[in-house]
């Protein structure tokens, strides 16, 4: 079923092209600019353009996957509804039509007759892309299609996407804000167990050509199923460790200082504890998907978030990649309530069950917060240090 992962790579790149086009094509960029002006916030449009870009990406992913794998489109879930109601009370369902002309005609109704924008958007929606990975070409693994569910976050960190900052400097490789924090997240999970199986994270805005102002992106993937663990960073890791006796021994892991990436809205008690555990290596950053990606890339040991405002579509893709690397994403609250010395299995996030008693998007919230990690031994040590430093802080609050 590596065919599904290959197709997810391709549709993620098509989605990235849509995201880039909306910033680079003048007719579409003008609509994005209007998002910044509250007084003029797209009152004449059926939907604000930010939401339309999100929805289009989500619908393109659904359409392409259903075409290649009939029945799978109905198992793709995401944050956005694709139904809009205009001022006349007319309901418009945004979807990818079979032809570019039909898609443009539908978008014309949403964008209040803006022909240039409708045609530009339809063109990139129907454009073919080819994104392949030699490692995947040689991989043959069979996963029953009927056990698969897919979570999609079409444009994660929408605020940074609309704001569009391009001159943000990184802090030891971690960007606090800017277009680099925008990601497209596609996570595949087992609908029976809730465990993540495959993940794709596409980062559309990585480097910009200062002459053409065009952006290049990058894509990361991972697969973890029945003892098979493979991911896109394996070649880079093996090259980096070429000539070494082993990748990382336990002694160096224990002695190396911790680093963590956090939300700017993180609680002060957690920030204070982290500053004790990590010293100066605590990096605030935008976007749940991007912060998880920082852990995938090894820019930080840990992504920790204590609030319940990330969702299954935010974490599933990175979780699958991290599992393939020997890591994972766990429920923070449950981790802090159990001692690392017990040796119990850690409470991995699951993706198939709604939260009891919740409604709306909270049905799929990561209620206990989360901790993303690459190394289980590093996580155990980190948790011990965090619990020790949270103890006195809790008594003060």
Describe the model:
With 397 residues, this protein is α+β, with helices and mostly antiparallel strands. The chain is 40% helix and 18% strand. The chain contains 14 helices and 13 strands. The strands form three sheets. It has a six-stranded mixed β-sheet, with helices on both faces. A hairpin with a 5-residue loop joins strand 5 and strand 6. Helix 4 crosses helix 5, helix 10 crosses helix 14 and helix 11 packs parallel to helix 12. The longest helix is centred in the first third of the chain and has 23 residues. It is globular, with a radius of gyration of 21 Å. It starts with a helix and ends with a helix.
Q: Strands, helices and their partners?
A:
Elements: H1 2-24, H2 26-34, H3 49-68, E1 76-78, E2 83-85, E3 91-93, H4 100-110, H5 115-125, H6 134-137, E4 148-156, H7 158-163, E5 183-190, E6 196-208, E7 215-225, E8 228-231, H8 234-240, H9 250-255, E9 260-262, H10 268-278, E10 282-284, H11 288-296, E11 302-305, H12 312-324, E12 328-330, H13 332-337, E13 370-373, H14 376-396
Parallel strand pairs: 1-4, 9-10, 9-11
Antiparallel strand pairs: 2-3, 4-5, 5-6, 6-7, 7-8, 11-13, 12-13
Helix pairs in contact: 1-2, 1-3, 1-5, 4-5, 10-14, 11-12
